[in-house]
Inverse folding.
């Protein structure tokens, strides 16, 4: 198992955070 960080992992993590934020914002609005 390599302990190196892959660029795509950061992108996926960011996307998940963004999605969670969008869902939380939309849920609180409607």
């Amino acid at each position: 198992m390599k302990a190196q960080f892959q660029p795509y992992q950061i992108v996926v993590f960011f996307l998940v955070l963004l999605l969670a934020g969008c869902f939380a914002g939309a849920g609180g609005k409607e």
About this structure: The mean pLDDT is 82.
